[in-house]
Amino acid sequence: EEEALIKAEKLFIAGQMAAGIAHEIRNPLTSLKGFTQFLKSKTDNYHEYYDIMLTELDRINAIVQEFMALAKPQANHLKNHDLINIMQHVNTLLETQANLNNVQIRTQIDDGHPFVRCDENQLKQVFINILKNAIEAMPEGGEVMIELDTRQSDLVMIQITDQGIGIPKEQLGKLGGPFFTTKSSGTGLGLMVCHRIIQAHQGTMFITSELNKGTTVTIQLPVIQQY
Ligand code: ADP
Ligand code: MG
């Protein structure tokens, strides 16, 4: 038991260090990006190289940001929030990216109107990460369905289903582990962040998938009241 405690403490310290480093990396990164853009605008040569540099800088930035989300103290701004509001806000945020990829995001809500005690930004981050994965899983476009099931009074079930490439069985177990990605420009941190946040909200999250058919992410969260 003591060993477990020491391990938890070590993990915590590692997390804090990672967050600190991530934070420090952001400023130099911003100036690198700015000057790269500047140099690109000053010449007609080597644009493809500048573009690679900019893409890679964006990738570092994404990793750094996800790292910071990971190491942030979890669920410490808890308030009662209207879950439907949160979902609608996330949909608005992702509308452009969805449109660009020929993806329709549809929402199906039953009669209930659940309120959830949560850190609003963290919960939004969860849905953003999951919807981004859904969009990225459908290179030819398609539909993402968000369903809210409020039939149980004390919890809400949120299911997000895409019609994408799916996940091979042997990879399902690796999801949510750090840096597991199958994307050329992925970070492999998105789902890990989701798990951490949902856990901190006393919820559960699991993923089912069928190859070439699609993927469903199911989240259950405690509900404080329904209207
Ligand atoms: P990233 O998106 O940066 O790769 P994530 O943690 O968000 O990192 O996802 C990890 C991996 O899980 C992805 O690279 C992909 O292989 C798989 N994955 C997650 N969501 C989906 C999905 N909706 N459809 C297919 N594969 C998915
Ligand atoms: Mg992702």
Automatic annotation (TrEMBL):
Catalytic activity: ATP + protein L-histidine = ADP + protein N-phospho-L-histidine
Residue ranges of the TM segments: none
Keyword entries, A-Z: ATP-binding, Kinase, Nucleotide-binding, Phosphoprotein, Sporulation, Transferase, Two-component regulatory system
Domain Histidine kinase: 20-225
Gene Ontology BP terms: sporulation resulting in formation of a cellular spore
Organism: Paenibacillus baekrokdamisoli
Name the UniProt record assigns to this protein: histidine kinase
GO molecular function annotations of the record: ATP binding; phosphorelay sensor kinase activity
Source organism superkingdom: Bacteria
EC number: 2.7.13.3
